[in-house]
Amino acid sequence: MKIRAHAESHVVELDDGSQWQIFPGDLATTLSWKPETDLRLEPSGDRVSSHVLVNAADGSRVRVIAASETWPDGEVKKVLKGG
User: Fold this and answer.
1) Is the Cβ–Cβ distance between 50 and 32 less than 8 Å?
2) Which of 3, 9, 22, 71 is deepest in the core (most CB within 10 A)?
3) What beta strand segments (E) does the chain contain?
4) Are 54 and 61 in contact (CB under 8 A)?
5) CB distance 19 to 13 below 8 Å
6) Which top-rank group of organisms is this from (predicted)?
């Protein structure tokens, strides 16, 4: 899938129309993304995110949830602190 819009740093819209919130700790990974970046959406076994977006070119991964969802209470801070 390709990126349709990435206007807000924490939300990406893919060419299939789906919108995903990017995990705060993974935002730096998305800085190099361009509209032609080929991404693959995969289910996640992570306790924080429901899915991961994988950059096909370099294999980098970012944790995401649907844009309409909210991050689990306390989990974001725990993960960001290394817990």
Assistant:
1) no
2) 22
3) 3-5, 11-14, 19-22, 39-43, 51-55, 61-66
4) yes
5) yes
6) Bacteria
